[in-house]
Write a structure and sequence with these properties.
The chain has about 210 residues and is α+β, with helices and mostly antiparallel strands. Helices cover about 30% and strands about 30% of the residues. It is built from 5 helices and 14 strands. The strands form 4 sheets. It has a 6-stranded mixed barrel. Strands 1-14-5 form a 3-stranded antiparallel β-sheet, with helices on one face. The chain has a two-stranded antiparallel sheet with strand order 2-3. The longest helix is centred in the first third of the chain and has 30 residues, at about 15-40. The radius of gyration is 26 Å and the shape is elongated. About 25% of the residues are buried.
């Protein structure tokens, strides 16, 4: 068998090398797919900005069930336009419910430079994490910044929001596990991509039951 294999390699080296490369490519793909599946099975999402919330209003979706030719039922879910935002007035309705100690909505602010997500400071109260250093932003030109963005209280940071660059003074450094920036609630409402609405796709409104 060994002599036969050697003769085949001597006379048909090209096909043998091509077969070997194909096997190596196949094994590489299988190992990569196995790694992805294994990591997906082990991954457990952790709440960040709403870790201490007892209630989170999820985004609205549209679901439709269809029956395939084989008899199986398939459910298709599509997010509604505008990212499933809800009216900001819903925050006050939730806040007035019996037993609710606090509620807020997430006025998400997409930040282009540096790439980050902006939020109102009231959102941070539901993160369940203490402020690393500094104090909460009190003026519209102040922000609290996640430590991953590499700035400290007292520094200046330039943020590009909606194509407009603005300079802010960093009032606090926080650790949220994400690249996040926290404005005053009033400033976040002004900079919100959807004024008068809260982006429930990012987990809002939040509520804490007292």
């Amino acid at each position: 068998m060994t002599r036969l294999a050697a003769r085949l390699l001597r006379h048909r080296g090209g096909p043998a090398v091509a077969t070997l490369l194909a096997l190596l490519a196949g094994v590489t793909i299988l190992v990569a797919m196995g790694t992805l599946v294994e990591s997906g099975l082990r991954w457990r999402p952790e709440p960040r900005l709403w870790a201490t919330a007892d209630l989170v209003v999820a985004h609205r979706t549209l679901s439709q069930q269809t029956r395939e030719f084989g008899g199986d039922t398939t459910t298709s879910t599509v997010a509604l336009p505008e990212g499933g935002t809800v009216d900001a007035a819903l925050v006050d309705r939730v806040r007035r419910l019996p037993g609710v100690a606090d509620a807020t909505g997430d006025d998400r602010v997409p930040i282009g430079v540096p790439p980050a997500d902006g939020h109102g400071w009231a959102t941070y109260a539901f993160a369940g994490r203490p402020v690393s250093t500094g104090v909460a932003p009190r003026a519209d030109d102040e922000v609290a910044v996640d430590v991953r963005l590499g700035v400290s209280p007292g520094d200046r940071i330039d943020l590009v929001v909606g194509g407009v660059a603005r300079s802010y003074r960093v009032s606090a450094a926080v650790d949220t596990g994400t690249d996040a920036v926290f404005f005053t609630d009033a400033q976040a409402a002004r900079l919100s991509a959807h004024p008068g609405r809260v982006a429930s796709t990012d987990g809002g409104p939040f509520a804490r039951v007292g």
